[in-house]
Specification:
Pathway: Metabolic intermediate biosynthesis; acetyl-CoA biosynthesis; acetyl-CoA from acetate: step 2/2. The chain is of the alpha/beta class. The chain is built from 28 helices and 24 strands. It is 45% helix and 17% strand.
């Protein structure tokens, strides 16, 4: 297995950060301890953006001093005192120390912004050769003809080969349609399209660039990209027709009439939504005026410079790819995954499958699994802010095709206000959809035994949870995720009434995927069934083992009790013992132990002492608890004590997947839950296909 890769561009502004992000995402699925290294960085005195992106997004425990060797000036001093060989030796020594502590080092070459950019490709090639690192080169297609790119590829490749470098692949980044034919197989050349969003300034970056004071608006609004600028130097009736979505108004601070008018446009569903307002000449509106601006949610920024100077400061600035730029990160990762054959690249880098699985690796593998066989998931809470932000990220990254439920105008207005892109997302209003009558008829037939009439059914199906569930039942979508704004009962009850359980499964239960520092365990049931009997407990165990398989966890099932083996007795222990016998009869292929205490299930030393020779003892991956009280308490205790990440609850036992969110969920939680639901849908299809045969 290779433990190093050198990423080098061939010129400035190639979009190297976006490629580095795509590589980090690929590496994160396979590498436990990952480091990012920059041999030489600019002398601006700020943390390196690529290092900060890696540390922020992938929680790398990587001090700045370890991640960066030299600035351009300190590198020049070293070369002046001892020649290039001294610089190369120092970099090689620095990386050698990193390789002792990390499983993989991604070296990201220079930015071509130093005093001698013409010699930097040779320097990067020399560094890669001396590090023994295979090279992935990046070339910009922006503003170049296909012939010019071909020439640059040939010349760059020649320089690398002259230095003895192995080129694993080339990425033509920031490409246009004219570059589509440049792809090749050996060594691979991948063409990634230009994404203007990556170079756009966010409102937050505008605040920093202008050294401004934020008077109003924060949170997601600061992450909105600025598409264009508008100088506010005319009457409001002249300015409003010029307004566009994503436009930043730059106006004298005493023109509060323009600021209030633009803020009013932001809350109107019929007018464009600007990105924010910059008030110049150091004039700060009074509290009454600010009170008029705040309801729009627009960021309002005060600066000391005049309007002309402010616009001149913004001219030519480009945004950076940062860990908190969710929209940019999603767009970059989606473009990389769509246009780079990551499996081929993984093989060429010579990555091997790891023995351990960290939470970060699990999340990356989960997203990759969902992308590999894309499914359609319905999100009933279409006007919820977190749902819209997650929808954009999921769509950009190609995790799933999504359907939102709700009033299309209200959803579009909220999306515009947030600056989110819902292109390609289907929106259905349950109250006006032609499907409502069809679904009501089906629901009335399914629930006639409960006295549900067609008229009652028509009213019930107008509810987003019921309509979404009927979309799943009818096969219009593959799964549903809800609960960001609804109770668990509101999410699950329709599924229990309509979708029902798999053949041979008596009940719906839940499982948590517990991501510990070096492995993933499955805990069940921790959220749904209060006190299962032995047969139900066996159902939970079998379903939990299948959940484990779906998410790449080899199932070794421990039926947890306060007693191990035959050492104890009592009603509760007998229930677990009986359930274990039922599971053994139904699934003789499953590695199984029970009754077994928690410590004997997960600690090899204790397991060997209490159940010697049992393959599950000390090595369990699926832990089935005797009741909800035990399961819920244990998962929360482990979550806190072991700093584990609990993903779920994942509902299991349904014919088609429906999953519940916590009302306190984050955007990342929603993304993971949609990916989980998509993977469950893949599994559900496979099970149904097997049954059909």
């Amino acid at each position: 297995m290779s433990d190093i890769l050198y990423l080098t561009s061939m010129e400035p502004r190639s979009g190297k950060s976006a490629v580095a992000l795509g590589l980090l995402d690929l590496l994160a699925a396979d590498v436990q301890r990952l480091a990012v290294f920059r041999p030489v960085v600019p002398d601006h005195g700020q943390p390196d953006p690529i290092v900060e992106l890696a540390r922020g997004r992938y929680q790398l425990e990587l001090p700045e001093a370890d991640a960066v060797a030299f600035t351009y000036s300190s590198a020049a001093e070293l070369i002046e005192s001892g020649g290039p060989e001294r610089l190369i030796a120092a970099v090689v020594d620095h990386v050698a120390r990193l390789r002792e502590r990390y499983d993989f080092v991604l070296c990201v070459g220079t930015d071509y912004t130093g005093p001698s950019p013409a010699v930097e490709l040779g320097l990067n090639a020399e560094l890669a050769a001396n590090l023994g690192a295979p090279v992935l080169q990046v070339l910009s297609g922006h503003g170049r003809t296909a012939d010019a790119v071909t020439t640059a590829l040939r010349e760059g490749g020649a320089v690398l080969r002259e230095h003895g470098c192995e080129v694993v692949a080339t990425i033509v980044n920031r490409a246009g349609p004219e570059h589509a034919g440049l792809t090749s197989a050996d060594p691979p050349v991948y063409v990634v399209p230009d994404l203007p969003i990556l170079a756009a300034l966010t409102v937050g970056e505008v605040v920093a660039a202008l050294d401004g004071t934020l008077l109003a608006g924060d949170g997601p609004a600061l992450q909105r990209e600025v598409d264009s600028y508008l100088a506010g130097s005319a009457y409001l009736q002249t300015v409003l027709p010029l307004l566009r979505d994503g436009m930043l108004l730059v106006s004298s601070g005493d023109r509060i009439d323009l600021a209030v008018g633009v803020a009013a446009a932001a809350v109107s569903p019929h007018l464009p939504t600007p990105a924010g307002i910059v008030l110049t000449v150091g004039h700060v509106p009074d509290q009454q005026s600010l009170a008029l601006l705040e309801p729009s949610g627009l960021p309002v920024i005060a600066v000391k410079a005049d309007t002309y100077t402010t616009l001149h400061q913004l001219e030519g600035l480009t945004g950076q790819l940062r860990a908190d730029s969710a929209r940019k990160v999603a767009a970059a990762l989606g473009a990389f995954a769509d246009n780079v054959d990551t499996e081929t690249l993984r093989k060429r880098i010579q990555l091997s499958k790891p023995d351990v699985v960290t939470p970060l690796m699990f999340s990356a593998q989960l997203i990759a699994h969902a992308r590999a066989d894309k499914r359609t998931i319905v999100l009933p809470e279409g006007d919820e802010e977190r749902i819209l932000l997650a929808t954009e990220e999921l769509t950009h990254r190609g995790v799933a095709d999504l359907v939102l439920l709700g009033d299309p105008d209200a959803i579009a207005a909220k999306a515009t206000q947030l600056g989110t892109d819902l292109s390609g997302v289907r929106i259905i209003d349950p109250l006006t959809s032609p499907l409502r009558a069809q679904f009501a008829k089906t629901y009335a037939e399914l629930r006639a035994h409960r006295g549900v009439t067609p008229e009652m059914a028509f009213d019930i199906i107008g509810d987003v949870s019921y309509f979404g569930t009927m979309l799943v039942h009818a096969g219009e979508v593959d799964g549903m995720v809800s609960g960001a704004a609804h109770t668990t009962a509101h999410t699950i009850r329709p599924a229990l009434e309509v979708i029902r359980t798999l053949p041979g499964v008596s009940l719906v239960s839940s499982a948590f995927l517990m991501c510990l520092p070096t492995r993933v365990l499955v805990f069940a049931d921790c959220a749904v069934v209060p006190d299962p009997d032995a047969t139900q407990l066996a159902d939970i165990a079998v379903c939990a083992s299948e959940t484990a398989v779906a998410f790449g966890v080899e199932p070794r099932v421990a039926m947890v009790s306060y007693s191990t083996g035959g050492s104890g007795s009592g009603v509760d222990v007998e229930k677990v013992r009986e359930a274990t016998e039922i599971v053994a009869g139904r699934r003789p292929d499953l590695p199984l132990a029970g009754p077994i205490q928690y410590d004997a299930a997960v600690d090899p030393g204790v397991g060997a002492a209490k159940l010697p020779g049992n393959p599950v003892a000390g090595h369990a991956t699926v832990l089935v608890f005797p009741d909800l009280n035990t399961g819920n308490t244990t998962y929360k205790a482990v979550q806190r004590a072991a700093s584990a990440i609990a993903v779920g609850p994942v509902l299991q036992g349904l014919r088609r997947p429906v999953n519940d969110l916590s009302r306190g969920c984050t955007v990342a939680d929603i993304v993971n839950t949609v990916a989980i639901t998509a993977v469950q849908a893949q599994q559900s299809t496979a099970v149904q296909a097997q049954g059909a045969r």
